[in-house]
Amino acid sequence: MKSRLTKTDARRYRKRWEVVNAAERRELRATPVKLKFLQLAALMVSAKKMGWVGSLAAEEAEVRNRWNRLRKILSA
């Protein structure tokens, strides 16, 4: 039988993730822009090699249409 998560355990769990997230933010801020662009380029090449470009383009068009509908509604 599983033991229940206590309030103290939940707080400790949350605190650990806050520490992890803070470390990740520091790491990302310290990453040079050139490296970020290289990482993005690598992801884009991977997407192309996996054949995701077409499906991503279709999803992108759908998202653009949604934003345009929202823009029209909010500006009316």
Features:
mainly alpha; 3 helices; 76 residues
Give a verbal description of the structure.
By secondary structure, the chain is mainly α. The chain is about 85% helix and about 0% strand. It has one domain (about 5-75). The chain contains three helices and no strands. It is extended and about 45 Å long. The termini are far apart. The mean pLDDT is about 95.
Count the DSSP helices. 3
Overall mean pLDDT stands at: 93
State Rg.
21 Å
Count of distinct strands: 0
Count of spatially separate domains: 1
What sort of overall outline do the alpha carbons produce when their principal axes are compared? Answer: extended
Share in β-strands: under 5%
Terminus-to-terminus distance: 57 Å
Sequence stretches where pLDDT stays below 50 over 5 or more residues: none
Helix content: over 70%
**Strand and helix order:** HHH
Main beta-sheet annotation:
none
Structural class by SSE content: mainly alpha
Describe this structure in a few short sentences.
This protein has 76 residues and is mainly α.
SSE blueprint:
Elements: H1 7-30, H2 33-49, H3 53-75
